[in-house]
Design brief:
Length: about 725
């Protein structure tokens, strides 16, 4: 036999002998010993040629064990002779030792992982893709990292590890000298087929908000690793998103019948932007073209993923990012009767070309949006009866999804359709039964505040779609776009409704979007991220996790988080509307929505809020009793709070400058802006906030991010 075969033979003999010795001599003792008196007793063993997931898993396991025990744990390949010198071994992934031990037993299900002791060996393995190391955790087609999930399962369950926010300071790794464990035999799979935050991809181009591209990259890399540790990913790539964005370019001239008939009598976008066009969903040509496009895609998708994948069975019928607009007789005949059609100017035929032109001149695209769509950011002069909730088109879209599904089944009998419940068709259909082969991606209407009224509305219409026949649903709300970089926590209701959705047909989630304001949104964002892999765990358990990171200062931390939660709950829709309409941006658009969140900061937070919150944090270091890590975590909260305060100061200075138009006010605004920018530069390595996203919102209301011009001389 050759040297490698001999090494594996020796290792296998040692494994078997060790198991027999352990069983006969130590049956009353621990099954597996990881470390004793600070000295590692076990070695981490990978396959001879580990795949990318197994390499990443070994790196993560070693990192956490080294920190927990203050020692160096060794990682070796299975063909390495060192394996025979250690009784206790942690085998990662598809090792030969696992096969010798008869593992995994029955074949793995998708994303299933196994944590199991066999004699003196611990096996951490699962269903993986054979991907490259740098691909681990990326969103894409069918990423499966279950061996890595087995590592995280062991670290959390047996060693009490927690990941509270991105970066080393957010890692809670209990210090130990010794550790042994009795028999473990645990198999589990992720509860949702896809678990996504939108907006986590690293931007290209300017590092807006960060001092350098490298600083921005460090933030995104830390956040990515944090999300991977919370099983961010999927076992099925769901082909979804606005799917008709190119149709106007492709078919606007050749097939105008595919597109909405406006109340003005024209088949075209509502305004000069193809995003503002929706489909004539009752037109059979649309159904056939959609299925033809899907059929053409089957070959290249299969080639890209290296084999069949369920994503090819799902026909994406999600509309463009706009309200349904078609007023043709057939589409209208598909709508269920509703008094709001008569109350709404668009659907009652009062909106002509002259009306639209005048509205656009005064209010821009925002004014056109509110003619037909559902918006919470309404102007005071808008009649809430006529405009607050648009007339519902849900029955016509339910019929549309059924029609496309019937066409698709002519190509593949097991085809499915995914379509939105969105904008003016988010409410449940009243009359139409939906084929169980249709998956509904439910896009909640609200940004902020997320209150009891919104929760009740969400549950009513989620269940309404279910009662209409929908079996599987995707939870894809927009309300996590709210809050900018200021303290906010609507997490309790959000988590309750997440659990409700999970027990009522939710198979996947995709939240739009992760703003990355970790310090100021900590309780809400951590709780939801944690829920992606444990939907019924709830807000209180997440709160316990976070408070445990503050040790003996946990009571002061609790006071701080209680204040943020109570303050968030005090924001009503009426208050939001009042603040938004006092802060019109771009000359036309109400402030405070997700593109321009900083606009309302001066209205919501008075001069007393930030000093009061800082005072609570001032009490925490004494309670920390000299624990440097706890004190640093308190400072982490303080840094986020300070960033929000400086952002508010800058907005107040900007409003004064806008009102006065004086050199003095201009200089004050630029000084305030510079103070904010310099502060962010000093804390950007602490991962308190995604300053790139903050800067993008601030740029939209006129803050000079990235503009190095002579005006900066006024600083």
């Amino acid at each position: 036999m050759n040297r490698k075969t001999f090494r594996f033979f020796i290792g296998s003999v040692a494994f078997a002998a060790g198991a027999c010795f352990f069983a006969s001599c130590n049956s009353a003792g621990p099954v597996f010993e990881l470390a004793k008196d600070g000295v590692p007793c076990a070695v981490i063993v990978t396959p001879e040629k580990p795949n990318g997931v197994e390499k990443y898993a070994a790196e993560e396991l070693k990192y956490h064990l080294d920190k927990a025990f203050g020692a160096e744990f060794k990682v070796v390949g299975e063909d390495n002779a060192d394996v025979s010198n250690t009784v206790y071994r942690i085998y990662l992934g598809a090792t030969k030792a696992a096969a010798t031990a008869g593992l995994p037993g029955r074949p793995f299900e998708e994303e299933e992982h196994l944590v199991k002791t066999v004699g003196p060996s611990l096996f951490l393995m699962g269903e993986d893709n054979n991907m490259k190391y740098e691909e681990v955790g990326r969103q894409g087609l069918s990423r499966r990292c279950a061996t890595l999930y087995a590592v995280y399962d062991f670290l959390e369950t047996e060693l009490g590890v927690k990941w509270i926010w991105p970066g080393e300071l957010g890692e809670v790794i209990p210090k130990r000298r010794s550790f042994s464990v009795a028999a473990i035999d645990r198999r589990a799979s992720e509860p949702l087929i896809s678990r996504k935050w939108h907006g986590t991809g690293k931007p290209t181009g300017k590092a807006l908000g960060f001092s350098t591209p490298e600083a921005m990259a460090r933030f995104y890399d830390a956040q990515r690793r944090f999300l991977i540790r919370h099983r961010y990913g999927h076992r099925r790539y769901i082909v979804t998103g606005h799917s008709f964005t190119e149709w106007w370019k492709r078919f606007g001239k050749s097939h105008p019948e595919y597109f909405n008939l406006l109340s003005t009598g024209e088949r075209k976008p509502l305004y000069d932007n193809a995003r503002g066009v929706t489909m004539c969903v009752s037109e059979p040509g649309v159904w056939k073209q959609k299925v033809a496009d899907w059929k053409d895609s089957l070959t290249w998708i299969r080639k890209r993923v290296g084999g069949p994948n369920e994503c090819t069975e799902w026909v994406n019928c999600c509309e463009n990012d706009y309200a349904g607009l078609c007023t043709c007789a057939k589409c209208r005949s598909w709508d269920a009767p509703d008094p709001r059609f008569a109350l709404n100017d668009y659907w009652s035929g009062k909106v002509d070309k002259k009306y639209l032109a005048a509205l656009h001149k005064v209010e821009g695209n925002y004014g056109l949006d509110r003619v037909c769509g559902d918006t919470r950011w309404v102007l005071p002069k808008v009649d809430p009866v006529k405009e607050r909730f648009a007339a519902p088109l849900s029955d016509r879209y339910a019929k549309f999804y059924n029609a496309v599904l019937a066409e698709a089944r002519k190509v593949k009998p097991d085809a499915r359709v995914i379509g939105y419940a969105y904008d003016n068709y988010v409410e449940a259909p009243k009359e139409t039964r939906v084929d169980p082969g249709v998956v509904i991606e439910f896009v909640s209407r609200s940004y902020f505040p997320y209150d009891k009224t919104e929760s009740e509305w969400f549950r009513k219409h989620w269940m309404g779609w279910r009662k209409a026949g929908v079996k599987d649903m995707v939870h894809r709300p927009n309300f996590m776009l709210a809050g900018g970089n200021y303290p906010i926590d609507n997490g309790r209701l959000i988590l309750d409704d997440f659990a409700f959705a999970y027990t009522n047909g939710m198979i996947a989630c995709g939240f739009d979007s992760l703003r990355g304001s970790w310090s100021c949104h900590l309780m809400m964002d951590y709780a939801l991220t944690r829920a992606f892999r444990d939907p019924l765990r709830g807000y209180e358990k997440a709160r316990e996790d976070i408070l445990s990171a503050f040790g003996s200062a946990g009571k002061a931390g609790a006071r701080y988080f209680d204040e943020v939660e109570a303050f968030s709950a005090s924001w009503t829709e009426e208050k939001v509307r009042a603040a938004s309409t006092k802060n019109i941006t771009g000359g036309r658009t109400p402030g405070g929505s997700f593109p321009n969140t900083p606009a309302i900061l001066g209205e919501f937070y008075d001069d007393r809020f930030f000093p009061r919150m800082q005072k609570i944090l001032d009490e925490a270091p004494a309670a920390a009793k000299g624990d440097a890590t706890v004190i640093a975590r308190i400072e982490y909260l303080r840094k986020g709070l300070r960033d929000a305060e400086l952002t508010r100061n800058c907005r107040i200075a900007q409003k004064r400058y806008d009102a006065e138009k004086t050199d003095t006010a201009k200089k004050a605004f630029y000084r305030s802006f510079r103070e904010l920018v310099e502060y962010r530069k000093s804390v950007e390595g602490d991962f308190i906030c995604n300053f790139h996203k903050a800067a993008r919102s601030e740029s939209r209301i006129g803050w000079p991010h990235g503009k190095l011009n002579k005006e900066y001389e006024v600083w």
